[in-house]
Amino acid sequence: MKLDKFLAQNIVKRATQIIPYAVNVMDNHGIIIASSDINRLGQYHLGAVQALRQNQAIEINAQLEQQWHFEVRQGINIPITYLNENIGVIGISGQPELVREYAKLVKMAAELIVEQAAQLEKERWQSRYKEEFVLSVAKPTLPIEQIEKQAIFFGLKYTQPYVAVVIKLIESTAEKLQLLLTYLSHHHPKVATAIMDLQKVLIFQPIEQNGVNKQTKFWQSYLPPEFSLNSCQIVIGNEVSSLAEVSYSYQNAQQTLQYAERMHLKKQILFFEEYRMPALLADFAQSWQAEMLFKPAYRLAEQDKKRVLLKTLQQYFFSNCDLDHAAKKLFIHPNTLRYRLDKIEQITALSFNKIEDKVILYLATLLIK
Predict the structure, then answer these.
(1) Can you tell me the distance from the alpha carbon of 199 to that of 171, in angstroms, rounded to the nearest whole number?
(2) Taking every annotated instance into account, which residue ranges of this chain make up the domain Putative sugar diacid recognition (predicted)?
């Protein structure tokens, strides 16, 4: 642990709140790096050097002050210790008999601040490397042996089922992102998180109860109360049997999110299982093969300016090709629906009685905007 200027200034600030005397903090070379008197910054402090060499408090009285040609002032200098090692010195200016009673108190306060800073740095280090681990598993770039070893190190259960979850902030700011991460660390400490970019956070959620990953309320609990319903989208990948397979869940969550973005889906919580086919075929939809396959559907879109036929086609498939059910959903007579379907066949030159043609039309409703 190194005593830097920022930490030293915190010690000075805290000490001067406790005692009515000037305070200096010196590094392990005896240089004043923080002081209640800014004119003393950067000076070499003989008393601090002696305290470090002798590993004990050094009192400087009027006689010693004169002997050292007034290069130091009266006071007491006490080593600051961390893990049995002297990392610096704290000095209290004043007549020794007056400041002596504050020495132990100030030393205790200084070392407590150092310990807190060290603990915070340890937590930051662990959080940073845990985040790198999560991203490495998601890509994936780590061999299975390393995943298992690092999972143990970070306290994650390797053989437990997991789902990957992507939370996308619609209008992201640094404050919102930090609020989300802080909320997750406090209220969902078992999950592993990583920042993907300024808009998205990745979560590896261990599954401890069957079906919990399909409950909408469960995932809504991952958002801070300050977040509105439309402030973000939560995309849940498929459940996998272990941490080694969670990259598949992550890829499926990503595909689902990309599909949702392309189709402008406004739903807050999206499950890969509900969008399996269009999510997995999202990349195919951008290919030249898809352009060739969906030519009849593009022809339909060109002629159907008001999108009446396209919406009819979508509802027909959403109703599992049940004419009566689809007609009820569209608030039209079944004969009107039959007329529209006949019109679609005429424009596309595809037949609902041929399975291949029907599949082309179905995929088109899923993949074309």
Answers:
(1) 8
(2) 3-135
